[in-house]
Amino acid sequence: MSDQTHADSHGAIDYIAVEQSPRFLTLKRTQRSFIFPLAAFFLVWYFVYVLLAAFAPEFMGQRVWGDITIGLLLGLGQFVTTFGITMAYVSFANRKLDPLATEIREELEKAQGAA
Questions:
Q1: Greatest CA separation found in the chain?
Q2: What count of other Cβ atoms lies within 10 Å of the Cβ of residue 6?
Q3: 3-16: per-residue pLDDT in tens?
Q4: Beta carbons within 10 angstroms of residue 5's beta carbon
Q5: DSSP secondary-structure letter at 95?
Q6: Which residue from 49, 36, 34 is spatially nearest to 91, judged by alpha carbons?
Q7: What three-state secondary structure class fits 1?
Q8: How far is Cα 24 from Cα 104, in angstroms, rounded to an integer?
Q9: Distance, CA of 74 to CA of 59 (rounded, Å)
């Protein structure tokens, strides 16, 4: 069995070996290094919003302009943040994750086709 192809003599791919390979581990580590900090940031931001709404209604009700309040702006900020994180992740995945995932997939397809 080649370390590069992770296929045995019958052509079956050893997916456990692939999952434990340095390139796959790098792919997972790269993805997690982006996802976990942003998820933590968003959860903190969301819970701050919820806690402010629950325990600081006078602050959240302060008018900024006309009927626009701080609470409304922070609530809309939740949507803006969600879209921003999504766009950042898509860009990150296109630049960093997809090329390595494509290499791994093509290698596995080649190994499967050679069997």
A1: 74
A2: 22
A3: 455 555 556 778 89
A4: 19
A5: I
A6: 34
A7: coil
A8: 8
A9: 11
* Distance from C-alpha of 101 to C-alpha of 19, rounded to nearest angstrom: 12
Encode pLDDT of 54-83 as tens digits. Answer: 999 999 999 999 999 999 999 999 999 999
Mean model confidence pLDDT for the chain: 90
Q: How far apart are CA 36 and CA 28, in angstroms?
A: 12
Tokens for 60, please give them: 């959240």
| Distance in angstroms (rounded) separating the CA atoms of residues 36 and 38 | 5
At residue 111, the 3 state secondary structure works out as: helix
